[in-house]
Every structure is written in structure tokens, then in C-alpha cells.
Amino acid sequence: MKILIVEDDADLREITTRSLEKERYVVSQAPDYKTALRKIEDYDYDCILLDIMLPDGSGLDLLEELHALGKRTNVIILSAKDSLEDKVKGLDLGADDYLPKPYHLAELHARLKSLFRRNQREGEKKVSYGNVEVIPDHFKVAVGGKELDLNRKEYDILLYFMLRPGRLVNKTTLAESVWGDHIDQVDNFDFIYAQIKNLRKHLKEAGATVELKAVYGIGYKLVEE
């Protein structure tokens, strides 16, 4: 899962980033309104952790920009401003949750897991397609009930497609979502080809009824055989 932290406090931003990365999230940062606006225009995120009070603007204005861009991104407001008015306005503008600062990292992790679980099919703790199951809370994969051992990026790629079965995903979008912002600036995508080749092999050898199909010149999609 890819998260953008919009926070002007450098120490809090770094502490939160390190904590999230330990939980295997892909994390990007924005210290101010201008940087955050540029990032939401250029990239997509599964969730934005958004401070309301920024040195050069309001986080609430960023929520309005997200809406104007037509992006369906989960947003958790993280702010020392805990007035009812700000909370209500943020939720009205499309925020999904509100966590006042100072916050405990454990609670932030719990809120994120709950948010992502709600976005999955019927809030289930596991994601299923064909005979493949992924349990995001424990980073586990099973094929036909038997656990499948994958490396981190193979797992991240599989989960990304399991949440979007049958949807065509271009290589750049996949790279940004699994490896982070600015990966679109690399010279080639050989690192993606290698990971997908290995993932395909693992799925086939395990007897999976789903496969990653390549669409020449565009990207990949996960389909059921």
C-alpha cells in the first residue's frame, strides 16, 4: 500500500515514515502544501495522512483539490487542531478518518488496517480470487489452502493485482505503487519484468487458478483461468 504523509514537522514525519515502512507500506513525504499538491497531481496513493495546518496553505484545501482532480484517495486527517468545526469540515470534504495529534503510532497502524479492510470486499480480512488467498494483516499468501512463500516485492505485486482482479494496470502505475514515486524516471522496467516472471512461476508451480497476463506494450492484468 502506498501512503503520502503531508506533515511540516520533520521529526514527526520521519518517525511516522520509519514506522510505516516497518509495516511494509510504500511511503512518500510532503513537508508543505505546494509539494503535496504537486504529488497528488502527479501520483496516486492508497491513503494520504494529512495535516491541516501547513506553512503555506491548508490541508482542507488539499482535500478540495483531490475532489477536483477526481481522485478517490483515502484520507486520514492528522492535526493538533481538534475543534469540531475542522473535523466536520474535513469529513464533509471527503476525509475518511480523523486522528488528533499527538497520536500513538500503534493507533495509526490500527486505523490504517481498518480503513484498508473496509475497502476490501465486504471488509474481509483476506482477499480471495480463484484459489488464491492473501491475508494482508499477516503478509501471507495461500494457494488452494497451502501457504506460498514469496519475497516482499512478489507479495506486494500480487496483493496489488488481487485488489484489482481483471483490471489492466500499466507498467508505470504498477512501478509507482509498489516501488514509490519517481520510479517512472528509470531508464527501463527490467526490475518489474524479473519480479513478475518469478511471481508467475511461483503461482503456476503452486497450482494457482489465476495468472498475470501481459498486454503487450501496456502492462498486466490478473485473470482467472
Automatic annotation (TrEMBL):
Biological processes annotated in GO: regulation of DNA-templated transcription
InterPro entries the UniProt entry points to: CheY-like_superfamily, OmpR/PhoB-type_DNA-bd, Sig_transdc_resp-reg_receiver, WalR-like, WH-like_DNA-bd_sf
Residues annotated with 4-aspartylphosphate modification: D51
Pfam family, one: Trans_reg_C
Domain (OmpR/PhoB-type) ranges: 124-224
Occurrences of domain Response regulatory (ranges): 2-116
Keywords: DNA-binding, Phosphoprotein, Transcription, Transcription regulation, Two-component regulatory system
Annotated protein name in UniProt: DNA-binding response regulator
Organism: Phocaeicola plebeius
